[in-house]
Every structure is written in C-alpha cells, then in structure tokens.
Amino acid sequence: MVVHQHRRRGAAAVAVAAMVTIGGCGGPEGASASADSRPPGDATAAVRGAADGLTRSGSAQARTAMEMATGGTRITIRGEGGVDFTHRMGQLLVMLPADVTGKPGHRPITELLTPGALYMKNRGAGVPADKWVRVDTTALADGNLVTGGATDPITAAELLRGAQGVTYVGETDLSGTKVRHYTGTTDIGRAAKAASPDVRAALEAAAKGFSKDTVPFDVYLDLEGRLRKVRHRFSYVNNGVIDVSSTTLLYGFGTPVSVVLPASGDIFAGKIAD
Question: What's the pLDDT tens digit per position in 108-132?
C-alpha cells in the first residue's frame, strides 16, 4: 500500500556533510565487456529512454553504493531496498561505514524517497530515535543526487534523459543477465528540461549546485531495455570539491514495494545537529 505524502515544513538536513567525515569505498561489482560491439539501434535513444522503461516495469529491488573522496579520505555508503516506479516512491536502508578512527559504524538510516522530499529515520545527533527528518530535495544544492548517501534510483534514471556522446561498448553478463553496456556523459540542465514533472525541480536544483554540468556515466540495459545498472561520476562542491561515484543496481523487477510515509506528528521539527 502506498500512503500519500504528509507535508510539513521541517528542518532540512544535508546528510553528506556528516558522511564525508567517515571512512571506506567501492560500488557493486561491474561486469567485463565482451567483444560484441555491434550497436543495437540508436544508442543515445536507448539510454535516454531508460527512465520510461523503468516506469513500464512497475517496480524493482535496488542496491546502491556511493564512493566519496575528499581531503585524502575515501568512504563508501551502501544501500538496499525497493522502488515503486509507478508511484515514484521508494525505500532504502542506507549503511554507513566505520569512521576513520575505527569506531563502529552508525546505525543504518531508513530513507523514504518521494517526489520532492526525502524522509530519514536514525538521522543522527539531535533527532529522537522515533522521529523522522523531512528534507525538501528541491532546496538541496545537489537535488539529492548525493545528500542522502544514495542517489534515488528514479532520479538516477531521469538524469540519463540528458545523455550525449553515447558509445555502445558491447554485450556482457551482469549477475547472469545479458546486458548492453553504454558510456557517455549527461548534461544535468538538459536532463532537467526533459525529466518527468515529479523529478524536474530536484534536477533543476542540481544543475546549479554541481561544479560541472556534465556527468560521465556507464549504463547497462538488459535486452528488454530495462536499466540494470548505472554508475554516475559527480563532482560536488561542499566545503571543497568532493568526487563522488554513485552506482545503482536494479533487479527483481515486478517485486511489490510498499512505502508508508510517516504521519506529520512523527516528523522532527527541531534543530538538527551537524
């Protein structure tokens, strides 16, 4: 069951500010390219249409990995959950690594992904354990491509609508599924103009917040045109330049995904510690 969004103005937290002080690295494993380099039709159209293919698929399970490098420190943040592409909602359990001193990692953060908002539970210091934090993603400088420690799979696909300079690398195997590998760059501003209405405002914010408008990517589509894996490489400014590699892996298409949003009384409205 999908429960529609309860809106309440609350304090927005930028999770990446806390995450860049922790330590680790590495995304889901990629597959090696095959010798088959015959392009299956229009490569650019295939990549730009990835978001539409996910909408047709209905839902999927997802695994994410976000690698960050800043000031000589590298960390990896991993997530796992499911996405309802029809209702544009998802849920991820995001695991943070141990910090650079070797202290145990933080408790996993539950994230609810919705159009225009990110809900986080176990956000961290200053937030009661039974409360959620609501973040307006359209007000974030990165449009939540980086902030939550996982790129929303829906936004990751919509970002490909601005794909350009696409090259078909070849056919390969990804966890037992035959896929087609493409590389290229996407323009965030162009993607925002072509994006679905639910995602457009967040991408418009991201177009202003990143140090570079173009984002390199590797995309893997199955033979039905469904997005199986995408890796974006961002350059993000937050008290210095942060290089980010964000990987999303999709599988289990059609698996039911239930996202229940918190009641307004369960959303924390106080001050959030950095």
Answer: 899 999 999 999 998 766 788 889 9
